[in-house]
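Possible regression after last week's pipeline update?

I re-ran a chain I had predicted before the update to compare outputs. Posting the input and the new output here so someone can diff against the archived version. Not blocking, just want to make sure nothing changed silently.
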Amino acid sequence: MKKRRLLSVAALIISIAYLYSNIDAEELLLDIRGASPEYLLVAFMLSVSAFLLSTVRWYLFLKEVQKTSFKRTLLASISGYYLITILPQTIGHMIKVRLVGGDYFKALSALAVGMSLEVLVIVLFALVFEGFMKSSILWLCLILLLLLREEWVYKILDYPLRFLEIRGAKRVAAPLRDYLKRTYIGWRMAKRNRLIFFVSFILSVIILFLQIFSITVVGEAFGIHIQMRRAIYGFVMSLLFASASGIPGGFGANEFGLVLGIGASTKAAVTAFVYKFLFQYAYSVFGAVVFYKVVYRMVSRDEDSPR
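New output (post-update):
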C-alpha cells in the first residue's frame, strides 16, 4: 500500500513537472484572454450531454435488475464525480452505487455492464493505433468473455471459494460466494434484454465520440487544431496514464497523457486542463454538495426508522 502511494505521488510530481515545463507564462495569459467563449460553450454542452447519456445508460441497466428512479440514478452519478476525485476510481464507483439503493451487488453489476461496453468501445477505438494493437486485442477478448460467457467467469471465480467452504472456511467463503452469486445474477439480468443492450452500446459509442470530439472543440477555443486521430490517441493515452498512476481523479495524469497525445505546447496544456475541468472537475464540486446531501438524508431516514 505504501509503495502504491509513493508511486502515485511520484506520478503526480512527474505529470505536473512535465506540464509545467511545457507552459510559457506569457503565452498562457494570451491564450486565456483569447479563448473563444463560443467554442467553450459548445464543449460544455457536449460535456453535459455525455454525462446525461452516461446516466441514462446506467439507469436502463438498473431497471433490468431492480426498481429504481432516474432521480436517484442521476444524484448517484453526479456524486460519483466527487468520489473518484478524492478516492481511487474503482472505490469511488463502488461507493456511489450505494446511493441508488436496492440490492447493492445487482446495482453494481448494472454499472459494471455499462462501463464494460464503454471500455469495449475504447478498445475498438484503440485498435486503430499499431502501438495499442496487442494490449487492445487482449482487452477485447477479456471483455467479450465477460459479456458473452459470464457463466465461465463465474464458475472459475466460484470454484476456489467453494473449495475453501468445503475445507472448513465456511465463515469466510460463504458470504463471498453469496456476494459473487448476486453480482453474477445482476450481471445476467442487466444484459438479458437485447434491445436495452444494443441501445446501451450505441449510447456508449455516442458518449465516447462526444468526449473525444470535445477535445478538438476545446482545442479550437484556444487556437489549436487537433485532428480526430490525435484526439483519440490523446484520449486513450490519458486513460492509460491515469489508470497506471493510481492518482485519485487522475489529476495531472489525465492531462499529462492528453498533452503527450495531442502534442506538447502551452496551448495543448491549457486545452488538457480546460477539457478535464469541463468533463470532471466542474462536476466534482457540484457532486460534493449532492453527495453529502444524499448521505445526510440517508442517515436521517435510518435514525427516524423504528428499531
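Follow-up from reviewer: compared with the archived run. The chain has 13 helices and no strands. Marking as no regression found.
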